[in-house]
Amino acid sequence: xxxxxxxxxxxxxxxxxxxxxxxxxxxxxxxxxxxxxxxxxxxxxxxxxxxxxxxxxxxxxxxxxxxxxxxxxxxxxxxxxxxxxxxxxxxxxxxxxxxxxxxxxxxxxxxxxxxxxxxxxxxxxxxxxxxxxxxxxxxxxxxxxxxxxxxxxxxxxxxxx
Amino acid sequence: xxxxxxxxxxxxxxxxxxxxxxxxxxxxxxxxxxxxxxxxxxxxxxxxxxxxxxxxxxxxxxxxxxxxxxxxxxxxxxxxxxxxxxxxxxxxxxxxxxxxxxxxxxxxxxxxxxxxxxxxxxxxxxxxxxxxxxxxxxxxxxxxxxxxxxxxxxxxxxxxxxxxxxxxxxxxxxxxxxxxxxxxxxxxxxxxxxxxxxxxxxxxxxxxxxxxxxxxxxxxxxxxxxxxxxxxxxxxxxxxxxxxxxxxxxxxxxxxxxxxxxxxxxxxxxxxxxxxxxxxxxxxxxxxxxxxxxxxxxxxxxxxxxxxxxxxxxxxxxxxxxxxxxxxxxxxxxxxxxxxxxxxxxxxxxxxxxxxxxxxxxxxxxxxxxxxxxxxxxxxxxxxxxxxxxxxxxxxxxxxxxxxxxxxxxxxxxxxxxxxxxxxxxxxxxxxxxxxxxxxxxxxxxxxxxxxxxxxxxxxxxxxxxxxxxxxxxxxxxxxxxxxxxxxxxxxxxxxxxxxxxxx
Amino acid sequence: xxxxxxxxxxxxxxxxxxxxxxxxxxxxxxxxxxxxxxxxxxxxxxxxxxxxxxxxxxxxxxxxxxxxxxxxxxxxxxxxxxxxxxxxxxxxxxxxxxxxxxxxxxxxxxxxxxxxxxxxxxxxxxxxxxxxxxxxxxxxxxxxxxxxxxxxxxxxxxxxxxxxxxxxxxxxxxxxxxxxxxxxxxxxxxxxxxxxxxxxxxxxxxxxxxxxxxxxxxxxxxxxxxxxxxxxxxxxxxxxxxxxxxxxxxxxxxxxxxxxxxxxxxxxxxxxxxxxxxxxxxxxxxxxxxxxxxxxxxxxxxxxxxxxxxxxxxxxxxxxxxxxxxxxxxxxxxxxx
Lengths: 161, 504, 337
Description:
The complex is a heterotrimer. By secondary structure, chain A is mainly α.
C-alpha cells in the first residue's frame, strides 16, 4: 500500500500468530487468577503475563512497517520462503492427515487409524508403488500393535480384538 | 576417600559370581533400544522387567536397573541426531547440533561424538562417585529451593541464547513455554488453564509437546526433500566415520570435562538431570571463540550436551547410594529394586553395605565400557535410517510418536498435544520464533515456579533470607560471573545458535 | 471356558507344592465356576506410579487373588494429579466388575472431590476393604533443637509465622498441620507452609533440614529416619517403630486436641454400579478377596513386604472414609486458596 509516497506493509499472518500466542498467555493468566488470586499462586505467572503483554504490543508494532529504513529492513525477517503449490499441498496435507489420524484414533481404533494414516501419508508424499503402499502400512501396523499391546502390556484402543 | 576393605569386598562380590554380569548386557540393550525408538519409554521398559526382578539377587537387580539407565542415557541421542526427535527432556540440547550434522551427511560422526561423550561423561561421574560418594551426597542434600531457583534461572538464560534473529520473539517464545509448563494442578491445589480437561491436571504432556514442537514440525518441512541427507554419497553408514567421531571427541577435552562436571553438579539437584544438557550446551556456546557456529552442526554442541546428560545421573545416584534418598530419574527406578527385595535404604544400610555401593559403582564403570562397544554396533544399525526415503520415514515417525504419546499417558491428551504442538511449532518456525526457547521454558516452568514459590514461602517474603544460605550466594556469584566475564571480555559478541531453523 | 482353565503359572507352583494347597484350590475354583463372573481376566487400576506402595500391594494381589477368583488379574497404572486422573478413568469404564481399583481411598478421593474439583462423589464407589492403613507422624530434622513435640509447639507459639512446615498438598499431613495450627489458635498464618511436589521431594527436603518440621506418613519416614527426630504420632496409642508419644497426649496440657485422620488407607474399590447391578457377582468378588486375605501364603508375602492384610469389611471401610470426608470438609476452606 502506498500513501503519499510512504510504503505501509502489514504482516497479517504474523500479527495473527503473535496475537494467538499472547492471547493464550493472557487468558491463562486470567484463568489462574480466577482459580486463586493469592500472590503464591501468581508468583511466576503474573510477572510473565506482564512481560508477554509488553512483548505482544512491541511485536505487533513491528508487523506494521511504515517507510522502512535500512535498519528496519535488516530487522525484517529474511523473507519467508514461498510455498509452491505441490509443496504447500504436502505440508498442509501432512498436517491435516496427522490431525485426522489423532482425531479418529478413538472412534475407529488405533490399528485401523494407523493403517489408513500411513497409507494416505505415503500416497500424499509421492509413493506410487502399489506393493510399498500396501506392505509398509500392514507390516508397520502389525509390529506396532503387537509390540505395544502384547509385549508392553499397554492396552491400546483397537478395532480388532 | 575409598574404604579399601569395602572396595576389596566389592571386587570379591563382582568377581565371585557370574550372575551380576549376566544381566549387564541385556540391561544395556533394553535401555538402548527403548530410548532409540521414538515412542517407547523407560516406564514401559520397567513394566516389562518388573516381573523378573524378584528372581534376581539384590546386586544383580541393581546392576540390571542401572545398566538399563546407562543404555538409555545414550539411546536418547540416536533419534535426537538422526530425526530431531528428543526421546526425553535430557536429549533436547543434543538435537541443536546433532540434527544439522546429520542433515549435512555427518550422522555417523555425530553419533560417534555422542557415544564417546556419553561414555566419557558417565565414566567421569562414576569415577567421582567412587572416590567422593559421601561428600557429594552430603552437599546434595543441603541444596534446597533457593539454590534450585538460581540453577533454574541459569537454565532460563539459555532462552536469551536461543533467541535466533529476533530478541523479542525469543523472549516471547520463552515466556510462552514457561507459562505452558505451569498448566495444571498447582503445588497449592489451584487448577489452572486446563479448560476443564482432567487429563491436563498433570500439566501439558511434556514429551509429546517437545516431539511436536521439534520433530513433527520439522517433518512438515522435510516433505519437500527426498532424504534426510541430500548427498547420496554421504548416506552410507561407515564405521570409519563413527570411529573418527569417537576419536575426535577427545580433541575437545575442555568441552568434554566441563560437560561432565556440570552434569554431575546439576544432577545432584532434584530434577536437575533434565536441564544439565542445556546448561552445558549454553556454557559451551558462550565460552567458544566462534559461538555463531553452534546450532549449525558444531560437534562441540553434541559433545557438551551428551557429556552433561550422561553424567547427570551420577549425582542423584550419590544421594541414593550414600544416603538412601532418591532424588529422581534413575534413582527412583533403582528404588523399585530396593522395594522388591524388601530393603529399606538410608544411611545406616548404606554404611553397613559399603561393599554393595562400591560394587554398583564399579559395575557402572564396566557398563560404560560395554556401552562403548554395544553402542558402536547400535549406531551401525540405527544409522541406516538415513538410507530410507523421507516419504516413508515421515509417516512412520509421526505415527510412532502419536502411538507412543498415547501409550505414555494412556489417554488421547498425548496424541492431541502432539498434533497441536506440531502445527504450532511449524508456524513458529515460519515466523522466526525459536521453538527451542519454548521447549526450554516448557521444561523449566514447573521447576522454576516450584523453586520460586518455595523460596518465597520459606523466606516469608524476606530477601535477607538469602544471606543465611551461603551455597545460594555462591551460586549467585557464579551466575553473575558467568555473565559478567564474557561481557567484559567482548561486549559485542552475540550468539545465535538455534534449533530454530536446522533446515537451513 | 471354565474359569480354572486359565491359571497363571505362579499359582501352579503353589498348587504343586502340596496336596492340601491343591485341595484348597479346587474348593476355591468349583463354586466359582458356577458363577457368571468373572469369565475373563480382571484389570486392577492403580492411579499411582508403578513401584509405589499401592502398586506393589496391587501386584501382590495379582499373585494371590487369581487363585480365589479363577481368573488372572493385571495391573494398570494411570498416574496423575493425586490419583484424580486414574480415578476418573476408572469410573469411565463399564461397571461390570472387570475393572477394579486399588487406591489410598482416603485421603485422596475426598481431597480430589473437595479441593481439586473431581467430577465424582463418594457414592460413585463401593469401598470393599481398607486393607492397609498408615498413620501420620510429626517429625523435625535432627539438626533442629526441638527435643520434643512440646519444644516445637512452644517455639511456634513464641515465633508465630516464623517456623516453616513442609507439606505435600492435600495429604493427610497437610490437613493435620492445618488442624494443629487451628487447635493452637494460630491459623495457617502461624507458620510458613512450604509446598513440595510429592512426598518424596518433601522427605529429601526434611533430610536436608530445609524446613523446621513436617507431618508426614509413618512408612515414608523409614527412608530418612537417620535424619529426622520423630516427635509425635497421630494415633491414640504409641507404636513400636517410632519413639514418640500420641499427639493428643502432648496437646492435653494445652486443653486442646486434633482429629486423628487415617494416613493412606489402601483400599480395594469397585464402581458403585457393580454392586447395584450385579449383587451376586459383587458377593463373589468380596468372598474371593476374603479368601485371598485368609491365604497364609498371601499374609506371609504381605508381612515380608511390610504391608498389612487386615479385613475390616465394606461397612467399616466406608464409614471410616465418610468420617475422614467430614473432617476434611471442615478444613476444606483452609485448603482452598
